[in-house]
Amino acid sequence: xxxxxxxxxxxxxxxxxxxxxxxxxVLLLAAGAVYYLGGSFSGLAALSSGAALxxxxxxxxxxxxxxxxxxxxxxxxxxxxxxGIAAAVVSGAVIMLLTGYDPIESYTALFYGGFVKNWYVxxxxxxxxxxxxxxxxxxxxxxxxxxxxxxxxxxxxMAGAWLGFKLELPPLIAIILVYAAGxxxxxLWNFIPALLKVKTGAHEVITTMMFAHIxxxxxxxxxxxxxxxxxxxxxxxVTWELPESSWLLSFKSFIxxxxxxxxxxxxxxxxxxxxxxxxxxxxxxxxxxxxVGFNKEAARVQGISVGKNIFxxxxxxxxxxxxxxxxxxxxxxxxLFENLQAGYGWNGISVALLASNNPVGVIFTSLLWGALDAxxxxxxRTTHTPNSIVEIIKGxxxxxxxxxxxxxxxxRLIKKKKGGGSV
Amino acid sequence: xxxxxxxxxxxxxxxxxxxxxxxxxxxxxxxxRCITKQFPRVLANDEISILLNKGEILSILGExxxxxxxxxxxxxGLYRPTSGEIILKGKEISFSSPRDAIRAGLGMVHQxxxxxxxxxxxxxxxxxxxxxxxxxxxxxxAKKQVLEISELYGLHVDPDEKIxxxxxxxxxxxxxxxxxxxxxxxxILDEPTAVLTPQEVEELFRVIRALRDKGVSIIIxxxxxxxxxxxxxxxxxxxxxxxSGEGDIKDLTKEELANMMVGRDVVLRxxxxxxxxxxxxxxxxxxxxxxxxxxxxxxxxxKLDVSPGEIVGIAGVDGNGQSELSQAVMGLVKIDKGxxxxxxxxxxxLSTRERIDEGISFVPSDRQRDGLVLEMSISDNIIxxxxxxxxxxxxxxxxxxxxIRKYAEKLAVDFDIRTPSVSVSAASLSGGxxxxxxxxxxxxxxxxxxxxxxxxxGLDVGAIEYIHSRIMEMKQKGAAILLVSLExxxxxxxxxxxxxxxxxxxxxxxxxxxxxxxxVGLYMTGGRKKGSLNDGK
Lengths: 423, 537
Ligand SMILES: Nc1ncnc2c1ncn2[C@@H]1O[C@H](COP(=O)(O)OP(=O)(O)O)[C@@H](O)[C@H]1O
Ligand SMILES: [Mg+2]
Description:
heterodimer; B: disordered C terminus
């Protein structure tokens, strides 16, 4: 009896200890991430020590077996994308050699520019991409292709510019309100496509695409309506600048040597990714959305409403893409200008695909995408290699991913044929 | 004479005399020697040596997946064996395509017919070997030839009719004619009876005997013991890719065949006890109609009731309204008329979800399409439908993974789901285990009413036996069970009453112990149509 009691006590002490250590590792990881994303490389040290502590915890409390299987689990998730990236890098090198550029010099510049020198540009690039990537990945989970994320991005951006300007409220409240109202409006932008999909089966690729075009070309009209004074402004294609109360906090305010443009929108984006991941893995809504996405018929037979879940997924995807636009306006630009070539919606498709629609994976693929763009510009400036090589590398990566899907699809088709073989 | 594997390669074969006897009489027309076929993951045929005599009817018996079709496809030139030889009329041959096999006098009717639905009988028969006059197909000549052959073998079918207008039995006949048109001396039939009613089976057997009398040698594949006994003279039994037995039919009993096929003693009949006093019915369907878009009825004024502890079987040929009936009960299709009541409550206006809550469980016929989300884990598949209920969900819609896992692990043991872990995807399971996942989910809800649509479709004998015993257990527990099946054997084995469905109508109600499969088959094909439900009682 007593022995049992002390046993429980010891166990619970151990458990407390483990929890405490886990908490420390998570805090280290979080702080490291904040500093690293803020452009400070000291964050990397915190990140790696956090990861090391996390693994040590597993080792200390659960033994070698568990540690190995945990390492294996994370590595196995990385292996396929890493092979894809390596293959794309090698193909890029071959192309450079064939066209007379020095791959070593170019890659050095690309890497240095993207991940070291102009890392803050990579982070800035990645911020809206994470949101649009999440939007597309989430819709994919419900079996939907939200190809019109670009349009929802514009709605979010317009809402951000308008509300950010109009709401004269204390900073935090203004920002929260802008996010709430802006993402609501962006999700409304998917209302009609969602309704058509559920009621008539009209394909979301067509409808959201059409709505994306409307939203894009609405933005110049919006800008002219809310733009700076055409008489005085040298820039008739820009709205008024937002009051500082609705700007997102900049990293510079707590990391002195951070780039002045770098804003904390990236942290919201990362939080959003973890939130989406949580919704998908740990809530009944996520469960239903996945079930509907994988197999509508089976979901229906189990009494899960296909229409309702398609609706939720479309609206939520719209809100996420809208946040990309809001973040861009509140964080980076502080105004809306006519930039129809931004393409965050389209690039969101790439990062979602590259991450196999894993929400947390989207953070990394977006950063990779952002770094490739930032590094590509640096490379083009400092070496003779043209920026287009980066686009080629991106294209090859995507191709490899799509090839993987085609492979899976084909394998399934063949299996299905075979499966029907015997009665 | 045969070096590769001194046959017979299986144990306990006391009847090896047959083989030598056959060889001595010099009648063998086709022989395989130690045929082995290795597929990437399965050894589908393992050193199989069989022998077909001229003018005999030979059965190949085996469970699903035993390797029967593979062996036949090798004979027919569709697959190349990994090793082994085929000897045709004393000469070793090697077909590189069915074309070669046809030229050598082989014909095959596949498990799934390979006819062009929109073409006529004649066109289908001549397809690929058209008689032509200066490059133009001579349809009249072809038709004459087709008529001649069908006269000769007593295989009557209208040569000008389109395939899509023919019954399954007649389509099969066209397949046979097609082989004969190409001068087949050896005819292979792969599970020809799987799609037929008892009457059609009998008709097919008559044709097969007629062919034999005309000198055609026939191999018939089946997994049904009765048929082996009824039609063939000799039998080979395959089990998991190996030859597990052979013999003359006259020397064998059904039980012996079953043991060789399954590898252990099997219970051929389920014990139908608990058939005591009939209770008041709890499930009613009245006047239920579902119309097609055009207006004709898929379900036409269906009326039935099921009592607790009773199994009511719905017998019918595929496509006579069975799937509409189950969809209507589950609320997956709009009904045009009628009422469905459970425990005195009208449920036809409820959503699928609410019907499940009222105590309906459903095992759909297509387990991969309607029964499971293959990409999701076994545990998720076990709790889907109750994923938003306690204890699987906490407040605020948060899923309780630990409870789900605990529950799934318990059911995996209860229902004998063979898997290394309940967190692997349902896709990784075999068909039988996938079906057990569905049973675990549906049966564990303790349903008042249980709707089973072809619960053992495509499964092997072992799994069928298991599932039948679980169904009987549900009956004992007092569930009212409606069993839809295309297998008359299954209907007879399980149900207390049989309703025959034909063209969307319940045309007959019969007591299982007062009828025969022959009679049921007759109603299934619309014979003795729609006498009033009450006469003959
Ligand atoms: N083309 C194929 N590729 C891989 N495996 C196959 C193929 N065809 C059949 N199999 C496998 O070989 C085994 C025997 O199948 P089959 O000959 O169709 O059995 P049967 O006709 O006796 O039901 C099964 O396990 C089946 O999955
Ligand atoms: Mg077969």
